[in-house]
Please model this.
Amino acid sequence: MGDVKLAYIVQKPQYKGETSRLAITHAIAYQTVEILLEDGQTVTPTLCFVGEGVLGLQKGQKAMDLYGVTSTESHVKNSLLVDLDVLVCKEDLAKYGISEDAMPDAEEMGADKKIQVVPFSEIQKAMEESKHVLFF
Amino acid sequence: MGTLTIGCFPGLVGNMAYDFALKLAEAAVNKGHKVNIWFSGNATGSVKAHQKHLKDYSTGEKYLKALIEKGVEICTCEACTVARGIQKPEGIEGVQWNAMHWYLAKIYGSDRVLQIGGE
Model:
C-alpha cells in the first residue's frame, strides 16, 4: 500500500486542553511507526493549524520555566526537525492579529523545514490529498 | 468487512463522547468489522481495573472487557496512562499498552478512522 497520508487538523488552542498538544506528539510518532509496519509501508502526517488552533504557536514560550512542561514551541520545532509539513492558516493568523514573523522555526536545530503560513485553500488541499483526516 | 480504528481522547466521566466511542465500536464489531481503539489523553484513565459502576457515572471496565472478548483491540497510551498515576499491573486485563505509533500503525491498515478529540 506504500505511503498513507494523514491530515491532522488542530482546531483548539494550545494549553487550553491536552488534545491540541497530542496532535503534535501523535504526528511526530510517525518517525517510529515503521517498527510496527512492513518494509515500504509509511505514514505521513501533515500538521494543520486552523481557527483557534493557531493560538499558542508563537515563539519565545517559557512553559518549561514557568510550569515545568514542554512548550508547544519546542514540539513544533521538533516537528520541523523530523521533516513534518506544518501548515498554519494565514487567514486565521490575521484574524487574531498574529504576525507571521511570530511563528517559530528550528533552523538553529538544523531543521530543513519551516512552518508554512498558507491560505486555507492549501489546508483544504492537504485534507483532500489525505486518506484520513483527524480533527483534534 | 472493513477495519475501523477509533482514536478516543475524552475522559470517561464528564461527557458522553467516551460512551459514544464504545457504543460505536460495539455496533461495528457486531456487524463483523474489525475494530481497534486507541486511548490517549484523559481517556487513558479508563483502563484502570476495579471501577465501581455508580449509576450517575459512565463506566468503562465492563464494556471494555466485553469488547476485548469480541476481538476488539484496545490500546492505551502508556505515557498518558502512567502520567495519571496508573501502572500497568493495575490495568484492565487484555488492554494493550504502547506508544503513539501503535495508533498510526493501526490507521495505516484501516478503511475508516474516527478521531474523537478530548476536552
In short: The mean pLDDT of chain A is 97. Chain A touches chain B through 24 residues (CB under 8 Å).
